[in-house]
Amino acid sequence: METDVLEAEIVLPNHFNFKRVQMYEKYPKGQARGRHWKHLKQIIQAENFQNYPPNEPNYVNIESPPPMHPCKRICDITGFEAPYFDPRTKLRYANAEVFKVIRSLPSDYVQRYLALRNAAVVLK
Amino acid sequence: MPFISKIERQSDYSHFDSTVPIVIDNGGSYFRIGWAGESEPRVIFRNIVQRPRHKTTGETITVVGDHNPALLRYFDCTRSGPRSAFDNNVVYQFEIMEYILDFGFDRLGADQSQIDHPILITECACNPVHSRCRMAELLFESYGVPSIAFGVDAAFSYKYNEQLGICNRDGLAICSGFMTSHAIPFINGEAVYEACCRTNIGGYHVTDYLKQLLSLKYPHHISKLTWEKVEDLKMEHCYIVPDYASEVRIFQKGDKGVEEKTRCWQLPWTPSPVEEQPSEEEIARKAALKERQGQRLREMAEAKRSSRINELENEIGGLEFLLKQLKQVEENNVLTFLRETGYASKQEIDSALAKAIQSLRKAKGEQIETEEKMDSSMAEKYNLVNVPDDMLTPDQIKEKRKQLFLKSTTEARQRAKQKRAEEELEREREMKMEEEKRLENPERYLEDLRAKYQQLSEKVEQRKRLKTNGNNTNGNQNGSGGVGRGERLNAAQRERMRLLTTAAFDRGKGEDTFGIKDEDWQLYKLMSRDNDDDEDEKPTEDEADLARVTSRLREIDPTFFPKSESGSLMVEAPRFRPLAKEDFQIILGVERFRCPEVLFHPNLIGIDQSGLDEMAGISIRRLPFKDQGLEERITKSILLTGGCCQYPGMAERLEAGIRMSRPCGTPITVVRASDPILDAWRGASVYAAAMQFPHQTFSRMDYYEKGEDWLRQYQFSYTI
């Protein structure tokens, strides 16, 4: 290892005196291990929140509801207020100049703009 | 101001008694660790882990937090980016969490056989018990921690500010973090989680939105737009507007305020060296060089020609001499003489001579008068043509047929030649007439010609468009594929459609009989022929006319400039120009307030939840009992905390938003925490140093005796 890297101590050592179980003991090298963690979705599923009284706060029921006021539609490119909607690209746009721009955009850019507001076509 | 990590190793670990708790604020973006009772955390670093491979040895190493990127040049970071232990705001990857804790304890100076200090660690509100259990197990099993307490960061921050007198015992904490934002009401100094609410939006979303918008706007500079850089840009330039619509209108109209609201980031750029025009001398020198080269080539060709002429003349002389000799040779010696010379007969010598003479003429550049020769020999050549068939032998008949064929082709050729000559004359006459017309009234003539050109070119253009329409749809290459709205088919496609529809509908009554008769299948032949039609592109009459008019205009009109071949339909290709300073600027205009706007309208990035201003109202509505006095007390003390509330204009906007949803005349006070980022740790430090803290912790024994269900009920009490 290079000396400047060692001096900066950026590399985490394998062994720590203060640990009872070292990393290399817990996850021995060269041993295949499957995914050993649960994603948040799986964690929530396993919690069985539906079995608990609804007035008891839990991770799921403290989430905010959808907004009461409809969101202002803004132009996907410029951020201006967008009175128009292009049915072909599904982008919202503010004026004729922006329309010209969106019609000349390559389709992957269109999809990326749509993905910004989670409206892109997702192929599964 | 960009946040700077603090990762020097502490040396005074052994001075602390084992009863002094260690306080950890395990936040979504930063990890802070320090001693209870102190006012600042000892160690702060970004809550991420990278596991790159060494480029030469291939060894996988672990790097925790942010480091000087220059030091990572020895490692291949392309395969694994920075990873976080958090999914949303819940810790789920405890392997990563363990690396982070290792690094944190190590930098705090831990060197004994275990971490023999109680731990107070923060978690999110209503943390799922799975995550809480794993964290407790990790701390007990791997580090030998004697006891643990869990608390909520937003609550610690609120309580800390309450102690500072910034907010009251009843109030509301609005904490906007890295991945999520919470609104937590407090009654009598205790957090009421039944009434809290969470929106899954935070600083991460703002930075990500800004990063995406900028990389879509400046695709050439994507490499410059790293996460860290965009985060810096966000912290330095983003602000929150009181009213999005009116602010954006300023930009749309391009008022004079725009300039000062726009920020420009100049990327490093060095002007490319300007290419110097070659000097006069240089041009002259090059021309002279070219001339010399041409001269040499010409000389070489001349020399070759003269040598060839010389050779041919010698050959002819030789052959003539041979013939002369042959005349003098006696009859019976002819054969032996010929054998010596290598020729089979006298005719052969004759033909060789003729050939040589012809070549000589060619080399000297003389015209070969074959045609005339042909004329003179016409009579004897076609001697059989006028003789009736019955007077000839079969061989002669064959010969006659040949002659007839030859004669007719020659005559046809001559006729064509004559016609060409006539046409030439005609054209010349026309030209003369046009010239006269032009001389008569040059302006008028020019105008007529231009009009004609216009008309013709439009006609040709129209035809071309009809033929190719459908391939380039309205000049739009976004490749939505197929035939969409408002797009026309080209002629061939239209015809094919027609054929298909007639095939589908015309046969039988409600019964598909296509293919019973053999001629049904002719349809496909027709269709494919339609396609081939496009390919034979002979210039039509219009096109020829157009070419003629164009050349004429070119001759007489100096201002005339023919339209480009591709026509005006095509999008004008960007002309090449040297890159300028402006191409290396990243301009932040609307983005400065568009990105933080997602905190108030998560819908802008497709998250269907209420924004920060509505959350206050929701939280108050969720309170277990209705009490107007309490509600007023709560709205009088709204505390803003968390890294995401540092934007200028945040408090004003939030106050205006909350005022809209509360009854008229409600007193509303929104205050910012004394330090929105560190207050959570400081609050926790105060609680960990308090006398009652040991009662709030639980030990390894407690955990394994009472089990998960008990840990689910565990709640830190903030009222001492």
From TrEMBL, chain A:
Q: Does the keyword Transcription regulation apply?
A: yes
InterPro entries linked: INO80C/Ies6, Vps72/YL1_C
Q: Where is the Vps72/YL1 C-terminal domain?
A: 73-102
- Report the domain of life of the source organism: Eukaryota
The entry's cellular-component GO terms read:
nucleus
Indicate where this protein is primarily found. nucleus
Q: Does the keyword Transcription regulation apply?
A: yes
Name of protein: Vps72/YL1 C-terminal domain-containing protein
Where does the UniProt annotation locate this protein?
A: Nucleus
**Keywords from the UniProt entry:** Nucleus, Transcription, Transcription regulation
From TrEMBL, chain B:
Give the source's domain of life in one word.
Answer: Eukaryota
Task: Name its cellular compartments.
Answer: Nucleus
Pfam families assigned to the protein according to its UniProt record, in alphabetical order:
Actin
Source organism of this protein record: Cinchona calisaya
According to the record, the residues making up region (Disordered) are: 406-440, 460-486
Give the record's keywords alphabetically: Coiled coil, DNA damage, Nucleus, Transcription, Transcription regulation
Biased composition, class Basic and acidic residues, residue ranges: 410-440
Q: Would you tell me the protein name for this molecule?
A: Actin-related protein 5
Any one GO CC term of this protein is:
nucleus
Q: Name one GO biological process term.
A: actin filament-based process
Family in the record: Belongs to the actin family. ARP5 subfamily.
